[in-house]
Amino acid sequence: MDRTNQVWERAIPVSEEEIISLVKQFDTPLFVVSEEKLLQNYRAFQEFFPGIEIFYAVKANPHPFIIRTLKEIGSSFDVASFQEIELVSSQGVPPERMIFANTIKRKKGLRYARQIGVNLMTYDNEEELKKIAMVYPEAQLLVRIKTPSNGSRANLSYKFGAEPDMAPELLLQAKNMGLKPAGISFHVGSPCSNVNNYLYSLQKVSEIIEKVSGEISISVIDIGGGFPLSLYEEEGDESLEAFSKAINPHLQEFLKDGYRVIAEPGRVIVGSAAFLITKVIGKAVRSGITWYYLDDGIYGTFSAIPFDKATFRFLPLRESKEELPAVLAGPTCDSLDVVAENVLLPPLELEDLIVVPDIGAYSWASATNFNGFERAQVVMI
Ligand SMILES: Cc1ncc(COP(=O)(O)O)c(C=O)c1O
Fold first, then answer.
1. How distant, in Å, are the alpha carbons of 54, 225, 361 from that of 218?
2. What pTM was computed for the model?
3. Among the atoms of ligand 1, which is closest to the Cα of residue 226?
4. 4, 135, 152, 205: which has the fewest Cβ within 10 Å?
């Protein structure tokens, strides 16, 4: 492929020679995180949403490099389990820079949150309030509401979120139990392609604040994650810039009224900050189609395909004018381990390298060791 073309230049922050040298040094599969891209994404979020506190969603990619880099530039963190709290804490992040943003928490996680002082957390039901009352009554509580998920790939209001109409009651319940209701949170689904999901949810937040006023003082608004991977409008309508133009005026009103507004972005921070280098380790023609077997598959970094319903672009290093439909498969013995069908590729040989951009989020994080294949090694450049 033409290395000067925009696809490569936009997606891959290094040259072909550097790819080959990385592979010589580390072998494949190699998950390469660009520190520059990570910082650029974080700063773009800060620029587009001024005054909004960023709690990076660790679940998107919990690699310690990433946590440390984001910690250094002032990020806070969304953690969902005992293990994520421990991990983030082990990187030197103080507890006040974490939110326990899982509405169904294990007691072990709650006890640990209390022990080290992670004070902010979400809930969406009465049973959780009872658990919190038992284990961590001093915690600051944000009620999470259901949102529309129109145009979101993963609907995060299927399994989580109270009906907005129930939220005032849940906040009052917390107060009556002697707990500390402090705010409202939502997540519009991930990634979200429809900015109206945020606007609707913010409207609901205002209505809930109005309904409980006089009884409960709401101080925190948590707008969750769901932001698209592209940063700038020139990259398409669904960009962080376009979303910020629609959402930001409302957020600025909340800030002006003295609310603390926080967000839990994951994908937009890390998604485009990493690429994968994988190698062709096998080749066979089956029913007239060429199958290329890669050293990474859906039990590895491509776990983003089944779990996150993700699709990827495949950029082979080999150049050719001819392109033929092919199947890309992973290395395990499972027939399910197919990465892509009907991909147009130049004829490839064993040992050829394929670069896969925009694979930073919900990929390496959910990779397994199935069949003994280790997760891709991670390097930060
Ligand atoms: C509670 C919560 N916050 C934040 C996120 C991050 O969302 P995204 O990666 O779309 O920004 C998720 C994703 O699942 C989530 O469940």
1. 19, 20, 32
2. 0.96
3. 10
4. 4
